[in-house]
Amino acid sequence: MANLLTGNPLFVDTAATVISTPTRVQMIQWIDDAADIADDDDLNITINQTTIAAKIALTANEVGNVAVWTMTYPLGLMVNNLVVTTIDHGTLLVFIE
Q1: CB neighbours (10 Å) of residue 90?
Q2: Are 85 and 24 in contact (CB under 8 A)?
Q3: Residue 92: which residues within 8 A CB-CB, separation 6 or more?
Q4: How far is the C-alpha of 9 from the C-alpha of 59, rounded, in Å?
Q5: If we measure between CA atoms, which residue out of 40, 36, 75, 66 comes closest to residue 55?
Q6: What are the pLDDT digits (tens) for 19-48?
Q7: Could you tell me which of 90, 96, 95 has the C-alpha nearest to residue 30?
Q8: C-alpha 31: how far from its chain's center?
Q9: Tens digits of per-residue pLDDT, 56-66?
Q10: Measuring CA to CA, how many Å separate 19 from each of 22, 23, 53, 64?
Q11: Which residues of 67-79 are buried (b: 16+ CB within 10 A; e: fewer)?
Q12: Are 91 and 18 in contact (CB under 8 A)?
């Protein structure tokens, strides 16, 4: 799959600038959509110049079609820019208002 940066949610599976204009975000999820996320995989994103790093630590090398990491903003988070710098496997879903 390739990045899909239109619609809702946005789908990101390779490094990209996802949001570059003010957008209200409700939830961000890193999902194992192809059952390929493995031990030691990384996700690095920057939201409004703040870097967030996630690393998977598994005892078995398969999680299979689940959300492995989630950030939820019930009232919405105003995002001026969101950049994915590293995503080893899986897909990042960005749900916008």
Answers
A1: 26
A2: no
A3: 11, 12, 13, 18, 28, 29, 30, 31, 43, 45, 84
A4: 30
A5: 40
A6: 999 999 999 999 998 888 888 999 999 999
A7: 90
A8: 8
A9: 987 766 666 68
A10: 8, 7, 18, 28
A11: ebbebeeeeebeb
A12: no
Cα separation, 72 vs 64, in Å, equals 22
87 contacts 9 by C-beta, under 8 angstroms:
no
Residue 40's identity, in one-letter code, is D
Q: Which residue has the tokens 């390929």?
A: 36
Average pLDDT value for the chain: 92
CA 30, CA 28: separation in Å to the nearest integer? 7
For residues 37-62, one letter each, b for 16 or more C-beta atoms within 10 angstroms of the residue's C-beta and e for the rest, the string is bbeebebbbebeeeeeebebeeeeee
